[in-house]
Specification:
Strands 1, 2, 3, 4, 5, 14 and 15 form a seven-stranded mixed β-sheet that branches. The protein has a four-stranded parallel β-sheet with strand order 6-7-8-9, sandwiched between helices. It has a four-stranded parallel β-sheet with strand order 10-11-12-13. It is elongated, with a radius of gyration of 22 Å. The protein has 15 helices and 15 strands. The protein folds into two domains: 98 residues, Urease, subunit C, domain 1 (Roll), CATH 2.30.40; 298 residues, TIM Barrel. The chain has 410 residues and is an alpha/beta fold.
Length: 410
């Protein structure tokens, strides 16, 4: 297609630039050619076709940087019985998954339905974590970018050898990552990260989610430690690694040498100022999951401090096992509600650009600007949205009824 199309709307939200009133996105051959005021774009491209999006705002698609599609049939978060803590939830998750089955038609169909809903909600990029191949098998069915990571965990020497042997035999097209510092031996984390570096793909890892994680790593005690000992996952003779700065999960990962711009520390609830500085200096990505954190009662991430250190986090929903609603719109809403010192524009940037950077797809998505793919969203606006401030506030906080329409020029 050689025709230039001007997508005109009352509001354009480029993310990388201030909001435009009466703007246009110029598109040609499936890519964004230009973004600017409508009259300016009309004069620049006089032969262009005009596509009017009345009473709408145009914005980049969303990115869900952390989800577990394979757990879509494990709907613990929708049960009436409350979860009393992190280890209580892990126990329920393991028991429910054993009863329902980790694989099979029910698990596959639930994952497929969740994936479909994500696209309907305006999500173009997904970072999926799983112990099975359910998410990987759905990659071709998703119209955007579905990046599946096969998650490994294990602490014993026997399990480490077995896992590393399987990873060595796997094709380089398969992405592997580590589960968490508390569940994965240091040597295994380093080996999997080394492979990820060689292949040039992201390395997401659950980090500093419950407070008991730091306690386990630093002292070899606490609620999480006792739970893992009871489950036979850690021997009660376990000692924190010697010679490693492990007073916090981020410090521990830093000491292991795995922090860089392709590592994604997911959750990052319990991090201190020194660790935030480590994340910033190493350009490590951060992904926040406020809905899951709220359900599991693990606390709130220090969002303002991340932003003050130049870190733009991504957003993720986690799974239906720990979140009653799998929606990045809701994650924005919760983040805004819990962080009154954070601007709505920053929250919107997290849901778009932050996620695109974390997954390494910012060359195609995350902003509306020249060179990006011509895949973006049109959101119908209520009559009372008449200023840029009200617009961004509506999208980030008053968004429960939003039903985005895809604009997909190829």
């Amino acid at each position: 297609m050689n025709t230039i199309i001007l997508h005109r709307a009352p509001w354009i939200i480029p993310i990388s630039k201030p909001v435009l009133n009466d703007g246009a996105v110029a598109v040609k051959n499936g890519r964004i050619l230009d973004v600017g005021p409508f009259l300016e774009q009309r004069n620049r491209y006089p032969e262009a076709q005009i596509s009017e999006h009345t009473d709408c705002a145009l914005l980049p698609p969303l990115v869900n940087a952390h989800i577990h599609l394979e757990l879509s049939h494990i709907r613990i978060a929708e049960d009436n019985e409350p979860v009393t803590g992190f280890t209580n939830w892990i126990g329920k998750l393991l028991a429910t998954r054993e009863h329902a089955g980790a694989v099979g038609k029910a698990a596959e169909n639930a994952a497929r339905e969740t994936l479909k809903q994500q696209f309907e909600l305006g999500v173009i990029g997904i970072g999926d974590i799983g112990n099975t191949d359910i998410g990987e098998n759905l990659t071709e069915e998703f119209p955007g970018t579905l990046m599946h990571f096969h998650e490994v965990l294990g602490r014993s020497q026997k399990s480490r050898k077995s896992i590393l042997a399987k990873v060595a035999e796997a094709d380089d097209t398969k992405r592997f990552t580590a589960h968490a510092p508390y569940s994965t031996h240091a040597e295994l984390i380093q080996s999997i990260k080394k492979r990820a570096r060689r292949l040039g793909h992201p390395f997401p890892i659950h980090t500093a989610e419950p407070p008991s994680e730091n306690e386990l790593l630093s002292t070899g005690s606490g609620e999480l430690f006792e739970f893992l000992v009871q489950r036979g996952f850690i021997d009660n003779s376990y000692q924190p690694p010697a010679g490693i700065d492990n007073q916090g999960s981020v410090q521990y990962l830093h000491a292991l040498g795995v922090l860089d711009e392709q590592t994604i520390c997911v959750h990052c609830v319990h991090v201190n100022d020194e660790e935030i500085q480590m994340l910033a200096e190493s350009k490590t990505r951060v992904c926040l999951c406020p809905g899951s954190n709220r359900f599991l009662h693990v606390g709130r991430a220090p969002v303002r401090k991340f932003l003050d250190h130049g870190i733009l986090p991504a957003l993720g929903t986690d799974s239906r096992a720990s979140n009653p609603e799998i929606s990045i719109w809701r994650e924005m809403q919760l983040l805004s509600r819990d962080n009154h010192d954070v601007q709505q524009s920053d929250i919107l940037a997290m849901a778009t650009l932050g996620g695109a950077r974390a997954l390494g797809i910012e060359h195609d998505h995350g902003t509306l600007e020249k060179g990006k793919k011509a895949q973006f969203l049109a959101v119908k606006l209520p009559d009372n949205v008449r200023t840029a401030e009200k617009l961004v506030d509506y999208l980030a906080t008053d968004n429960s009824m939003i039903k985005p329409v895809w604009i997909n020029e190829k």
